[in-house]
Amino acid sequence: VWIFGYGSLVWRPGFEFTSRKVGFIRGYSRRFWQGDTFHRGSERMPGRVVTLLEDCGACTWGVAYEVRGEQIAASLQYLNMREAVLGGYDTKLVKFHPQEKDAEEPILALVYIATPQNPSYLGPASEEDIAAQIIVSSGCAGHNIEYLLRLADFMRYFCPQAEDKHLFSIEEALVSILPCLYCTEESLEET
Questions:
Q1: Is the pLDDT of residue 184 over 50?
Q2: Taking the alpha carbons of 130, 132, 133, 138 in that order, is the dihedral positive or negative?
């Protein structure tokens, strides 16, 4: 079984796997439109995490993990709790295209997608509003800023040829907001 990750699964799968491949799926774009009240946010301040939006001309880069034998049941049980029960995601089968030049045919992979019907779905917002929400959100897996920056780093280092305007625009908005929130010792002494 292959499992495709396009969010935190790219750097923290949390399950045992036999192999992993960087690559992409077609027909979807990644969006920070899913709310998170557990891993990267709270009930009071939901974080923003990614989901996939059907988009016939787009492709989304990520990592596919191959699980075999005893790994299958354990990984699916873990992901069901992490993505479906706690996250509000549904599963779908997609064609994964490995990045390798000598890659064979596309691989069928399982992917978790949050739809607008789930109660945590937040939907679209401006990059600035999403960045502002990410800055103030934190959950049991860590700060929402870490989620955004790790995903941007993955794209930058493992998929430098790929464009993800939505992701990088939010990262840029976050970086422009942070200095406004930072208070130096000098400014504290002045008050």
A1: no
A2: positive
Torsion of CA 55, 59, 62, 63, to 10 degrees: 110
User: Measuring CA to CA, which residue among 9, 33, 31, 8 is closest to residue 109?
Assistant: 9
pLDDT tens column, 33-72: 999 999 999 999 999 999 999 999 999 999 999 999 999 9
Compute how many other C-beta atoms are within 10 angstroms of the C-beta atom of residue 175: 11
> Judging by beta carbons within 10 Å of its beta carbon (0-12, 13-18, 19+), is residue 116 exposed, middle or buried?
exposed
Q: Which amino acid, residue 115?
A: T
CA distance 110 to 113: 10
* Whole-number pLDDT of residue 80: 92
Give the model confidence (pLDDT) of 145-178 as tens digits: 999 999 999 999 999 999 999 999 999 999 998 8
What tokens were used for 64? Answer: 């596919």
Packed helices 127-135 and 165-181: angle between N→C axes, nearest 10 degrees = 50
- Token representation of residue 104: 């064979």
pTM over 0.85: yes
Q: Are 144 and 40 within 8 A, CB to CB?
A: yes
The domains found in the chain, sorted by start residue, are 2-183 (3.10.490)
Q: Which residues are designated catalytic?
A: 83
Residue 123 tokens read as 């939907």
